[in-house]
Amino acid sequence: MTTAVPSAAVRPSTGTDPLALIDVDHVRFYVGNAKQSAFFYASAFGFQVDQICDLTTGSRESAQYLLTQGNIRFVLETPLTKEHPAADEIRRFGDGIKDIAFTVFDAEAAWKQAVRNGGTSAYEPVTRSDASGSVTMAGIRTYGRAVHTFVSRTGAYALPDIKQGATFMPGYRAFGDFALNAHNRANPCGLKFVDHAVGNVEEGRMNQWVSWYENVLGFSMFKHFDDKDISTEYSALMSKVMASGNQLIKFPINEPAAGKKKSQILEYLEWHDMTPGVQHLALRTDDELASVAALRRRGVDFLTIPETYYESVWARVDSMLRQHGHAAVKEDHQRIRDLGILVDADDEGYLLQLFSKPLQDRPTLFFEIICRRGSQSFGKGNFKALFESLEIEQGRRGNL
Ligand code: FE2
Known about the structure:
By secondary structure, this protein is an alpha+beta fold. Helices cover 27% and strands 32% of the residues. It is built from eleven helices and 17 strands. The chain is globular. 48% of the residues are buried. Residues 1-14 have low confidence and may be disordered. Bound molecules: fe (ii) ion.
């Protein structure tokens, strides 16, 4: 697979699966203060604060900020009234991801098909339109508090236009002059698109959600790890990875497994009102070293990997790559170590990855910065080092 994301394809002939996904339309966060969150994601991760929908555009229920970078679109939404559903969710969960929305050809048809397949509606189709075109959205509920919205777009709101900076949907306007936008254009972080989104679900429920992605959205199993792969002395988890038909996006699903101490998944759930949700979003870059260096300069707080990791990583990775006839890791080994980046290899190639600490005060949502050089897996060889590092952090939070 190349790093390119499929762009808006031609409309398929009738009879094609209405659930065929064109792209990740956007990721919606519910946050306590979108104005301040927009500054954080712009300053720390290099996003453009591109558009806004708030009181000044006639939106009296919530304020929404559209942040963009590469083919990534975040909507940061904050409630303006106590009646808005986000108000109660923020009280229960703190800031986090509410919705991973997919662009489809016909949102209403996709929503109907998903409900026929056994999905539960989150909300019925709504269309916003004006003289320029229209945007239709309809949502289904996935694990816990999370939703998948189907989005279909016409006229000036078509996806290729959105990617070129057109108005996101009726009700939005350009954010206007903002000093950080100019700084970010001159100092890019190189984040291209959403590679995967990981859900944490309750113990014993992973297989149920795997079936849900198969039955409701037509996804299929991509990879499978068990607690032998992902365990340390103290904590463990199990994970299965679901992929959309075109492998546009992958959804690993984690559940806690028994260990001597508290699993990182259980820690997440305990700070998330014992409700499943998105644990991390992996953002793809073509140049891990440049992206991580830029993010570190901006003050992004990454997990620290024990020094001993680098004593064995090259032997492990090089032998795997040699065994399968792939070229060795081309990036400078000392710089990888200096930047604290993790490396893993499988039969298809290698990947570079690094994980941020939580993005808010609660130990819930975090980001992964990932670069793939052939490998389509998720860094299984790094799980042990990673979990040891996470346990040190859990211990510091008094959550182990
Ligand atoms: Fe990941």
